[in-house]
Amino acid sequence: CRLMPYLYGAACEAAHDGVPAMRAMLLEFPEDPSCETLDRQYMLGESLLVAPVFSEDHTLRYYVPEGTWTHFLSGRKIPGGKWYSETHNYFSLPLLVRPNSLIATGACEDRAEYDFSENATLHLYELDDGKSAKCTLYRPGGEKALEVEVVRHGTMLHIAAADGEKPWTLLLHAIEKVKGATGCTYASDRDGIMVKPEDMKSCKIELF
Fold it and tell me: Helical H runs in the chain?
């Protein structure tokens, strides 16, 4: 249920652009030869890698493209460009967040139907210098409710939002502290730094 804003966004993008929500690895990584024949894992939208467990002994082998990926459920960092062999149970599986990703989660955990733009949390993962990450939240019916982009220049994060009318927060994963901020407040969280924009339009964060 927490991932419904992201899943609904992927469905809206599929309807608008024709790119499927479940994507072959080759579609997202056409220049990686290791992705050419992968048929037991896929990208769910552009930012989540899923490797289902098909064996009776709960073991699997999967490939992670280049970059530092993050296990969505545990927060564990996973270096890319290599294969992994793991054993999982009924309550776990490889669900990895692509680096330079901004993923929306919702405020409701007990049902799948709710206002996805209400008090949403946007999770920023491994944003490299010179890169940007974008996220779009949609209303029922497919209209855009909020667009947020985060751009990194050196130690500065520039955050800009459009179309948003409801409060939202930004969680900077794996960042323990920041040097300063403009246009927002921030506080430590177990997963990083939680940022709350003051006017819901733009703010800046300076990292160490």
Answer: 4-17, 25-28
